[in-house]
Design brief:
By secondary structure, the chain is an alpha/beta fold. The protein has three domains: 144 residues, Leucine-rich repeat, LRR (right-handed beta-alpha superhelix), CATH 3.80.10.10; 151 residues, Leucine-rich repeat, LRR (right-handed beta-alpha superhelix), CATH 3.80.10.10; 116 residues, Ribonuclease Inhibitor (Leucine-rich repeat, LRR (right-handed beta-alpha superhelix), Alpha-Beta Horseshoe), CATH 3.80.10. Helix content is 32%, strand content 11%. It contains 17 helices and 18 strands. A twelve-stranded parallel sheet has the order 7-8-9-10-11-12-13-14-15-16-17-18.
Length: 472
Amino acid sequence: MSFEWADLPRECWELILRSLKHRRDYDSVSLVCKEFYSITQRLHSSLTIYDSTIPFLPRFFVRFPALKFIDLSNFTGDLNPVLAQISKSRLALDSLNISNQNSLPIDGLQKLGSKMRNYLRVLICSGICDLQDSDLVLIADSFPLLEELHIGFPEFDPKFTVSDSGFTALTMRLKSLRTVKIDAGLPLSKLILRKCSDYTYSGISCLLAKCQSVQYLDLQNANLIDQDMRELSLFLRNVTFINLSFCSKLTNSTFLTLTRNCPVVSEIRMERTDLGTEGLKEDYLNDFVVHSQVKRLYLGSNFKLKDEDVKRFVSMCPNLELLDINTCWNITKGVFEALRDCRKITHLSLADCAAVSGFEIGFELPKLQVMNLSQSRIDDEALSTVSKTCCGLTHLELQNCFNVTSNGVRNVVEKSSRLREINLKHCNKVCADIIPWMVSSSSSLRKIMAPPSFCASESLTKLLLRHGCRVC
């Protein structure tokens, strides 16, 4: 039985011709016969359009029905009618490049989106001079299945007014979006990657290198080490807020890096990290720097953190206003010595610091307003110290402080003339009858979280409320 080359199925010839290295080879193959001509036309998947190409577009769309990618980045005219023409072609485009335009071709994209909203996966619009938040919303609404978006701003004389809200609206609308690529500096001021686990140091480094305007940076749960942060910190000159909580490999070294290389950072969050790791004393002595901008430190749930570590950190931040070291089980009463030179502090949390019991403070903290001692082992004597040294106290958390009695609470209320809220939940040694006394004795109290022994009638609750205090 004889076999002719023409007997091969069309699918086989397509596979054979696809193996050609260059698409220009299709031209010579298409001259062999009408069948090859037909096959090669269907194998053309991309088309670059120039100004001179426009008159032939209808013919190209008929000739190459399998086009998946159209490149308009070299076209210098008005893109709106071109995109309108493409929308009528019945092509199933997967990718489109409309880069290097003065503004986004809004009308054309809307028409294209009305016909191809379920096809387009990649949109490249780099170098758009006048890009705005509303343009990103239009892109998202026109192509809801978009997976990859290229936004690179022009390097010279940019007029873009894209803000964080524009990117937020974009990401909220595009549920399938996987990649946003940048070709030039992106004017981001806020970057939140909390609990995102698929990016690497390489990716975040590339992004921050191009987006050094970031002021708010949230990298919670990132898989980073101290060396990574030393290198990333070089791009964080404008960061005022940074969250590195749950980055379990970061140690004291990273804290030192932030205070040294981030000159305007005012809030640092490093909860549940590896702060307190030994072996950094020499680094500390060599890298010590006073950072007057840091106002808030959240260092809770660092189980290795010790009093001396907190002393080091606080000594670097003389203008500290908030210190949260909750659930740090190696912290003891010695931590208060760290506050000697930190008289501007207004908020202090030692909640669930099990090793904190009685303590002595040989100096005053006149600006301390909010103090959280919940689930600590403090007693009445410690409360007496608090009442003497913290004259400006307005909020006091004592929930689950089982060593505190009515006498300790009475002492605090008598000496804290500004106290507005106090939490006594689960304080089993505090008697119920002290609540009416507290309300009648203090003109400042506005809210009391009552101990378990207190069970007020409706009439008593209303009476206390008439005195200006709500008891819960």
